[in-house]
Amino acid sequence: MRIAVVALGKIGLPLAVQFADAGHEVIGVDVNPALVASVNAAREPFPGEEHLQEKLSQLVPTGRLRATTDYAEAIPGADVVVVVVPLFVDEATWEPDFAWMDAATRSIAAHLGEGTLVSYETTLPVGTTRTRWKPLLEAESGLVEGRDFYVVFSPERVLTGRVFADLRKYPKLIGGLSDEGARRARAFYEAVLQFDARTDLPRANGVWDLGTAEAAEMAKLAETTYRDVNIGLANQFGLFAADHGIDVYAVIEACNSQPYSHIHRPGIAVGGHCIPVYPRLYLAGDPDAEIVRTARLLNASMPERVIGRAAELLGSLEGLQTVVLGATYRGGVKETAFSGVFPLVAALQERGATVRVHDPLYSDDELRALGLEPYTIGETADVAVVHTDHLVYRALTPADVPGIRLLVDGRDCTDAAAWRGTPRVVVGRG
User: Is 63 helix (H, G, I), strand (E, B) or coil?
Assistant: First the structure.
């Protein structure tokens, strides 16, 4: 097959590589010329994705994988077009911003040929595939979906850093707008993916047809919104436990020893492209989902709540030297999308503190480019706030932060014994 992948980001590029590695001709299209040049030179444009560089080195020289900025080069003649363009959410209104996806869909439609399957993998509000992309593709191309071309929704379900392993591990969900579209989608994904055998699933691992695009859209939103709501519940428990001298981690461990309890862990912030964003996409289609809204608001409030607690313990943060440990939203992953580091820094600065940030994955210049003033382990500080559970912070001691008066461990990752004698606050521990 000839396959076009639209948007070569941290999900799109590994997908393109996966398809090419399965023996197909793949051309990726992206608006970033530097990224396109990097792919065509067989250089990974972003670090941290396991096996990406070695696969690029193998595939690009064969001609099976290349990249372009020109839709006219990528779309004509493609048997399948896979769309992984980012969908943003307005921070003020929580409404989805379709600008980039609208533009990409129009560009696809302008060059769409008969018989092409278009698969949207970007997470969407329920109903978007049918009510937005189908009419837009038809209007711009003059073709008819279900007769001249086919549209399906098939959500990506992978985590950056382990995309290739996750593609094998999890069932590939599809939902078509027509029976023929669904049939073609199944054939396509079965041709480009291989699946691990899993005895824990109710049916064989592989391509799972959910019957409609709406069901597939909801499945992706439901599985990620569940995590946000669960973390919100854990945070609510953690706030209560801390106020009453209870160790919520011991409580959660006890609860989860029973097979019907799956309580997540509380924490100082919820970040990344998915968990903070997708509940808002769900709310775009179900504005009455108050459980979802309440959990999202609580999780978003955690940085302010934690810094407020630190201010109460010290009386004031005015004029204090503070350090936030960890800029990334997740340990070991070099990504700051929706990271809690930004509201944490803002909350500290609003209370008059001087704030610096340390992260083992970022250079000082990279931190400054993010608007963060860098900190070096060993420099003096009054307060340290652990935001990211990087492995290096598990060995942190008071000697690493001379002059420290308070450690706020937002991930429960530091060694309590090492901090005996120094005030230490852990989210969820009384």
Answer: coil
